[in-house]
Design brief:
464 residues, FAD/NAD(P)-binding domain, nine-stranded mixed sheet, eight-stranded mixed sheet, 14 helices, disordered N terminus, FAD/NAD-bd_sf, FAD, EC 1.1.5.4
């Protein structure tokens, strides 16, 4: 008689990458499947060292309140409505964890979201956008003004040193009081603590280099502090940011055939003078310049990080062939395959405006960069601001039967045919949509992640 032994697994699920996506998935599993063995592998010596780190993003809870690039047609509210619904689910889940005492709510701060635009063309756009959005309950609290004194009340710092209308031209603004500033680094650490408290494990200094399918699951290979390792697991989630595509390619996943990524870097101007920072109660978004790509929308952000107030302005484009801030210059080239070279080339040719914008940004002097800030804060003192590198992104490029290659502006969850492997590709606004994305993945695993709206907390800041 022949007996068949059950394969031994080291984990029920391996999470690759210590950012907000793996932390969200891990915390959901700790809630819904406490019997699962969860193992998180992170190549760095800490969590949230890449895009989830507080200085590698602007901390905006992406609700669609102020992101003008989500609504190029001011009569079409589809994308903002989708964003506010997704962030609402994410917020409801966070709020539930805070209410249960499992998560410290200090990662989130009430921060109004504003738009400020200049000139008749952009004023007309903002006015129509406001009229379209305010018809929906989620945006009913939004206000609109063309009165400089009202703008001064909403954002005094924006009007400091502005002078007469003849110098700067006419302005308009919108304000939604229900916005937030989110420290995704603190949130990542809080969610990961839920995983470890439930018996999960986090291993730092473990860099995954390859994934191999087995008869019953996956083998995760890599190198750690004690040498090379091989971990057997039933399921894998690749939340490795810029390295995600390369790992999914190593798994020979048909679903990513033809997929590619392009490196996108950014820098911000930061002011850490608390007296200056406290004069802006909000996040102020503007309109991208004519011909500039949507991702270049300028914004001046009040940030609250590690117990201190700061201001952040940007983004300014940078260039590197790295796909992670702590990556290697060879990162981009390791993702190229005969099957995606034409996809990358087609996307680049269709986005020459982006290429020109990048070249102009790289050539811009510090004085030119500072002049962009002064459009939003005319009285800014250069001595109080420093230019800091922000996160490195991997912008997703997908094959297309008509256009060959399409540069995507968001994120995409890629799942293998049998559902045992998945990975997240692309960039912003992934963090704000983490819960809906992970709910979709868990459904593939036969797990229902419950998200219950909390009383009096829908899209409202957590009290702390």
């Amino acid at each position: 008689m022949v007996t068949h032994s059950t394969p031994a697994f080291d984990a029920d699920v391996v999470l690759i990458g210590g950012g907000i996506m793996s932390a969200t998935l891990g915390a959901m599993l700790a809630q819904e499947r406490p019997d699962w063995r969860i193992l998180l592998l992170e190549r760095a010596d800490a969590l949230a060292t890449e895009s989830s780190g507080p200085w590698n993003n602007a901390g905006t809870g992406h609700t669609g309140f102020c992101e003008l690039n989500y609504m190029p047609d001011p009569a079409d509210a589809a994308k903002p409505l989708s964003m506010v619904e997704q962030f609402g689910r994410t917020r409801a889940w966070w709020d539930g964890l805070v209410a249960d005492g499992r998560l410290d709510g200090g990662f989130l701060h009430p921060t109004p979201h504003l738009d400020v635009v200049f000139g008749e063309r952009d004023m007309a756009y903002l006015r129509q956008r406001y009229e379209t959005l305010r018809a929906h309950p989620e945006f009913a609290a939004m206000e609109y003004t063309e009165n400089p004194e009202t703008i001064r009340q909403w954002a005094p710092l924006v009007m400091e040193g502005r002078g007469s209308e003849s110098m700067w031209g006419r302005m308009a603004a919108t304000r939604h009081p229900g916005g937030t500033d989110v420290d995704f680094g603190a949130l990542t650490r809080g969610l990961t603590a839920i995983v470890t408290e439930a018996g999960g494990e986090v291993r730092f200094g473990h860099e995954v280099t390859g994934l191999r399918r087995t008869l019953a699951g996956w083998t995760v290979r890599g190198k750690g502090p004690e040498g090379r390792f091989a971990i057997r697991t039933r399921r894998v989630f690749v939340g490795a940011g810029g390295k995600a595509l390369r790992l999914l390619q190593s798994a020979r996943l048909p679903e990513v055939r033809g997929y590619a990524v392009l490196p996108v870097g950014a820098a911000f101007l930061r002011c850490s003078d608390p007296e200056v920072a406290r004069r802006l109660d909000g996040k102020v978004y503007g309109q991208a310049e004519i011909g500039a790509p949507p991702m270049s929308v300028p914004h001046l952000d009040r940030r609250y990080v590690d117990g201190a107030d700061h201001l952040l302005f940007g983004p300014y484009a940078t260039f590197s062939t790295k796909l992670l801030k702590r990556g290697r210059l060879t990162d981009f080239f390791t993702t190229l395959r005969p099957g995606n070279l034409h996809v990358v080339a087609a996307a680049a040719l269709q986005n020459l405006g982006l290429v020109r914008y990048l070249i102009a940004q790289l050539a811009a002097s510090r004085r030119a960069k500072f002049a962009q800030l002064q459009r939003f804060y005319p009285a800014a003192d250069p001595a109080q601001w420093e230019l800091i590198p922000a996160g490195q992104r991997a912008q997703l490029v997908t094959p297309d039967p008509r256009r060959v290659g399409v540069l995507q502006q968001g994120t995409e969850l890629v799942t293998g045919a049998d559902g045992t492997i998945a990975g997240l590709l692309g960039a912003s606004p992934g963090a704000s949509t983490a819960v809906p994305i992970m709910q979709d993945l868990l459904a593939r695993w036969g797990v229902t992640a419950r998200v219950e709206p909390q009383p009096n907390s829908e899209i409202q800041p957590v009290a702390h």
